[in-house]
């Protein structure tokens, strides 16, 4: 039995530094942020008493459906996120631990991050306007579009802005709502030529969409797999690569045609 006793003592001595190491790892801040479903905004409606989309130089139409842009809400880049936080988020569908440099520009102050996100939002709005007017075959010199959405940054609302502009000016092309009266949500960047690009946090955005009444979610085709991973029940995914794809899919939804699926 003496040898067993020595082995037991050795294991006990070894467990002390291991436990200390695990405790240190659990308390050490990690380069992650915690994110959850954020706010949505109907781009056909108002924000703080102002129309999100205002058009001058061209007739506009009343709309009855909703087009929801979606967001995620993330902790600040300097918030201390530790191993238990990351492990907890791993087992939840309403929260995610994301690398900080995916959500925020690396090495920037909070003020610089806010300025960068606002610049990205402004560019996204300009690109969305250009894509929508090109789709409608309207000259920017003759139509003035102003987009207003406070306290939201980044480029991921581009697709929904473009759809909102098209719906405000032309609807479905025959006097009806582009949405068919539905609540349509989505996400995706957009280029002036109408190309739709991927964004981050899609699973969380689908949950925000479902929470706020959407039945259809437009997603960049490259992110179909991510969107399917934790898709809320009753929310229909529609993949999009171009603005024209989104318009054709919405038309198919209204008319009972074939709608693409992820």
Number of helical stretches of at least 4 residues: 8
Computed structural class: alpha/beta
User: Mind describing the biggest β-sheet?
Assistant: 6 strands, mixed
Radius of gyration: 23 Å
What would the CATH topology be? Answer: Ribosomal Protein S5, domain 2
| Average pLDDT, all residues | 87
Helix content: 40-55%
CATH class wording: Alpha Beta
Extract low-pLDDT stretches. 18-23
Shape descriptor: globular
Count of distinct strands: 12
The CATH architecture name reads 2-Layer Sandwich
Distance between the termini: 65 Å
The number of domains is: 1
Strand order of the largest sheet: 6-1-5-8-11-12
Question: What fraction of residues sit in β-strands?
Answer: 15-25%
SSE order in H/E notation? HEEEEEHEHHEHEEEHEHEH
Written overview of the protein:
The protein is of the alpha/beta class and about 260 residues long. The chain has one domain: 2-Layer Sandwich (Ribosomal Protein S5, domain 2). The protein has helices at about 1-25, 85-90, 100-105, 110-135, 160-170, 200-210, 225-230, 245-255, and strands at about 30-40, 45, 50, 55, 65-75, 95-100, 145, 185, 190, 195, 215-220, 235-240. Helix 4 (about 110-135) packs parallel to helix 5. The longest helix has 26 residues, at about 1-25. It is globular, with a radius of gyration of 23 Å. The chain starts with a helix and ends in a 7-residue tail after the last helix.
Summary?
Helix content is 40%, strand content 21%.
